[in-house]
Each structure stands twice: as structure tokens, then as C-alpha cells.
Amino acid sequence: MSENAKLDVVGIGNAIVDIVATADDALLEEQGIIKGAMNLIDQDRADALYDVMGPAIERSGGSAGNTMAGIASLGGKGGYFGKVRDDQFGQIFRHDIRAEGVEFNTAAATDGPSTARCLIFVTPDAERSMNTYLGACVNLTVADIDEEMIKSAKVTYMEGYLWDPEEAKKAFIHASKTAHAAGRKVSLTLSDSFCVDRHRESFLNLVKNYVDILFANEEEAMALFQVDNFDAVLQEVRACCSVAAITRGEKGSVICAGDEVHVVDAIPVEQVVDTTGAGDLYAAGFLYGYTNGYSLYDSGRIGSIAAAEVISHFGARPETSLAKLVEEKLK
């Protein structure tokens, strides 16, 4: 892996504050919240829902933010780029992600939309009803990318959810070119099959021209390559990028690198409580292994260990030291 790197991975993504509170079905019905769904909302709706929430846990979130927190829990060194506003939630995001052990220096916006937030209502049946206001996070630009931080990281990891705004696309390309010019690697997670459907051609161009390490689940990969079976995915992805890690839920994952194909079993979990963050933490484990000298197969196993931990409880951040779990289970 690259010489003289200060960081293992730097992530680029939507900086969102997760606000999690318990609620009963009556509150959801009263507020017109679609149970179990993820609803995009505006700021007025976000403010109104916040006012009716009970006591809540407020912490930094977002897909790439979860991945970076996972890398920190594994003992890795990570950095993060994401846009917040200079408001209360922006301060919460900045403090929390730094407290996780992640370097975060992106300047806060001084005007425009407020910090993004996801208001999550958890009902007694364990359903999570998510209401997301994207706010400031979609306004990341090239100017927010610190080239020196990119150059200092072995891998730059980009979140597909942020591929919607044009300025963010430019930021991704700029970060990718900066990383490659410094001899570093570039990684992308496709994030969501709906993202792939919206941006298939530009995603394909990004993967073919800039991405060294691709993360996707089986459905996202089939959507990207417009194929209807997993074998076809493997053939397509091997021609596109150096390394691909395709997750398959309870079937585990498959890692491709040229002629190498590694099948990695999922780690059994006594009870799956919440699958939120499973892909984010798999990526964290894999990238930690990849940047710290583990084989591709063992990197995949670390990914599986991290994913198994996060689906065993509510929330998308590890509650147990992943470094200790890896020490116990990677034998």
C-alpha cells in the first residue's frame, strides 16, 4: 500500500445528523408518517417533526460518515468531507464525527439551507420510519475538497448518494484525479439501486475511468450493468475496475480482482435487529483490511464481521469495538 500516507481512508458524502427517538403508531398516524419508509422532507416539515419528537439521540450520520466511524472503530485512520451549515446541527455533526476519531475540517456554510438531518421514529415493533431533510449536505463543491488530505490518504471513498448535484459530481472527479495523481486509490459505493437508475450512464463512466475499488450490493450491480443474474455481474465488473466487493445479504459477499474471485460467508447473527448501515460497515471493514495489508479474502471477512455487529442492534454505528471483534473472530 502507498508510502507516506497519514490516513487510511478519506470519505466524501452527505453530512447528515441522525435524530432517533421512540414513538407509537398513533404519533406516526397523527403526523402522516409512512411507517417503515424513508421520506424526503423540506425544512418546515423537519422543524415540525422535531418539535413533536420525544427524547432523542442526536449524532453524525450519513452513509460515508458511518463507514468512516467503522474504520475508526477498527483502529484505522480516517478523514471526511461533508457539508454542514454553521448551526446547532452542524456543530453536533462536527463534534460527533471528530469524537469518533475521524478528521473533519470541511468549512461550514454561512448561508443557505440548514444542516441535513434524518428524523427517525422507532416504533415498538422495531420499524424505523425515516424522514430526511437534505439541506446543506448537497451543496458540497470542489472548493470543499482539501487536496492535501486526499493526497495523504491511501484510499478516497465516495458515496453514491451524493452523485445527484452537478457541483458534487465535479467534486468527485476532482478528488479522484487528485488521488490518482498522488498514486492513491479511489473507491465508490453505488449506495442505492434508485441512484443507479437515475445516473446509470454517468455512474458507468465514473467507474470505468476513475474507480479502483467498487462496492455494491447484488441489486445495485445488476442495475448498473443491466444484467439479470449474478454471474453476468461478475463478468462485467471484472472488466470495469481493479477490485469489486459485491454484497449479497445472508449469502455473504464476493470479491473480484482480475482472475481472483473470493466468496466470503456472512457472519451468523443471533437476531437481525436493524439492517441500516450494513453496507456502510462492510465497506469500512474491507477498506480497513485493504489499507492495512490484509488479503482481499481477509478484508472481506473483516467487512462481514463489521456488518454483522451493526445489524445486531439499532443504529448504523458500531456499539462494540470492531478492533476487538476482529481480533476474536479473524482466525
TrEMBL record:
InterPro entries given for it?
Carb_kinase_PfkB-like, Carboh/pur_kinase_PfkB_CS, PfkB_dom, Ribokinase-like
**Keyword Chloroplast among record annotations:** no
Recall the GO molecular function terms of this protein's record. Answer: kinase activity
The answer, when asked if Kinase is one of the entry's keywords, is yes
Q: Which PROSITE patterns match?
A: PFKB_KINASES_2
> In this protein, which residues make up the domain named Carbohydrate kinase PfkB?
59-318
Keyword tags: Kinase, Transferase
Return the similarity comment.
Belongs to the carbohydrate kinase PfkB family.
Q: What is this protein called?
A: Carbohydrate kinase
